[in-house]
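Because showing beats explaining, we let one protein speak, sequence and backbone structure tokens together, and leave readers to judge.
___
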Amino acid sequence: MNRRQFGTASMAAALGASSTSLTEAADSAASYYEVRRYQLRNDFDASPLHNFVENDFIPAMKSRGVGPIGCFGISTGRHSPSLILLIQYKSLSEFVTNTELAGKSDSFSAKWKAFETKPLPYVRYDSSLLKAFANHPGIEVPKAKDGRLFELRTYESKNAVASAAKIDMFNVEEIKIFRDCGMATIFFGEGVFANRLPHLTYMLAFDDMAHRTAAWDKFRANDDWNRIKGDPRWLDTVSVIDSSFLRATQYSEIR
């Protein structure tokens, strides 16, 4: 097994070791998201990666009922340059099944193997698995718009109790406030398998940076936000905030 297969195999083994009842319970819940980041370099030709994702990976996933799938470059933020894929799965079992395809024997696995065994146009890739929030159970795809600005935000918490409280705050109040302030809410997910747990990750969309600035100003002035931010249930729930601005590729289903 090579280093690129190890992470997927390890995750699949961990999921396979779970009890049947736990897996069934998880699969009956909301969607799961994979946020996959391909680390690029400015002196690499990334076109083979984009061609593979657009012409082979996305069609293969769609034929299996996986998606929506968003594909983004980093405009501003850590890990630039990168290609970020946002993939929705209906269940944990669907996630496992579709991360094992490179080891199968069909036309897509042959294309995947051919792509991976050539000189690679990326340095490494990493992947996080997220569980959708109860009050935002799936990706919301906005009407396509060229030039749209996406904001990907991750909130780390000091412990699992604080993280659960912040997720509750989103489910009960905060997601609605975002929408009231004119923000497109793409997805919200709780980290399941990832680095730096516990954390949650979500994505908002704006027409442009001016729209983003105005929307966040409106959010900070919102009466409901100012009412809930001091609620004892939800105090001291976020320790670190990481934010990046993304632009969708032309072949992204979310743009």
Observations:
- The chain has a mean pLDDT of 89.
- The beta strands are 32-39, 69-76, 82-89, 125-132, 149-156, 184-193, 199-206, 240-248.
